[in-house]
What we know:
Elements lengths: L1 H15 L5 E5 L4 E4 L1 H7 L21 H8 L4 H4 L4 E8 L5 E12 L7 E8 L24 H17 L10 H15 L4 E4 L6 H13 L6 E5 L5 H13 L11 E5 L6 H12 L6 E6 L3 H8 L3 H7 L2 E4 L10 H7 L1
Parallel strand pairs: 6-9, 6-10, 7-8, 8-9
Antiparallel strand pairs: 1-2, 1-5, 3-4, 4-5
Helix pairs in contact: 5-12, 6-7, 8-9
Amino acid sequence: MGRNRVTTAALTRLLNSAAEPIYVLDDELTIVFCNRACLDWLGSAAEGLLGRRCAYHSSPDSTGPDAVAARLCPPASAMAGRQATATVSCSRGDGHATHRRARFLPLQGTDDTVDMLALVAILDREDAEGPLDGSDVSTPSVHEAESPELHEQIRAFRRQAAGRYRADRLLGTSPAVRKARRQIELAAAGHGSVLLVGPPGSGRQHTAAAIHYGSGGSTSGSLIPLACSVLGPELIRSTLSALASGHSLGEAAGNSALLLNEVDELSHELQEELVALLVDRPFPLRLIATAGRPLEPLVRQAGYCEELAAALGTITIELPALCDRREDIPLLAQAF
Length: 336
C-alpha cells in the first residue's frame, strides 16, 4: 500500500509539473484528475469539476460544473478507444470563452478483453480559434441519429458566433443563413432601426436580442418587448407614451431598445399614433421590429403607413424559412 501511495504521489507531482493542461477521465467519462496547468486554464470554472461526468451535448443553455464538463468531452472515436484530437472549450464567469486543441489518449488494459481503463487529455499550451462554420468538419448523412461531427460543427460555430455578435443560435451553412448573419453583424455595429422579417420559428426575437446586446456589449441597456398583435391599443399607447418621455428608464434609456413584435398586425389607427410617437419627435430608444410579412407590399396593397414602414426599416433583415435552407436540417436536428 505504501509503495502504491508513493507511486501515485510521484505521478501526481510529475503531471502537475507539466506545462500543458492535462485532465484524466475514467472509463465512465468522469473527470478524476486535473493538473495545475489545467486548473489555471479553467480558472473559477474548475470549481466542482472533479467527479463530474462529461455528458456529450452541444446545448448552449446548461450552466455550472456540468456545462464545463460537457465542453471538455472527448469525441466519439476517443470514447471507442482510439487516439483522437478535438477542440475543447472553457467559458469563464465573465462570458469570455477560450478554446484549445486536445489530444485524447486512451489507456487500455493488458488483456484484449479489458475495455478502456481511462482517457488522458493533453491540451495545447496556447488558446486557439475554431472555424466559424465548421468548414473543416465533414457533414455526415442526414440518417445518422447521433453524429459527433455535427456536434463539433455546432460547437465550432458557437465558439465564434456567440463571442462576436451573439447570433449563436442562427445555425447553418446555407447561403440564406450566411447572408442573414452578415446583415446581423452590420446591424449590431450600428444604431439605426432594424426590421426583422420572417415566418414563425425563424428566430426573429432571438435575432433582435443578438443585435441589441451585440451593439452595446456590456453597456447594453434593456430590450423592451411589446407584442403588437396581443396587447390592446390602450396598453400599447400608454407604454409607448411612457417610453417616449424617457423618464421610465433614466440614464439607461440611451443604451436601451424597444422591440415591437408583429408590427405588420398593427391597426391603421395605431400606425398613425406610432408615427407621432416614434417619428415626429426624437425617440430615446433604438427601434427593433419584427414582422411576418415585408412591409413594402403592405404599403402598396393594404394601405400600411408608409412613413412608419420607412422609420422601422432603416435596415431590413429577412430571416429564411426552413424550406429555403433545407441543407441546414441535419445540423438543426442534431442541435435540438
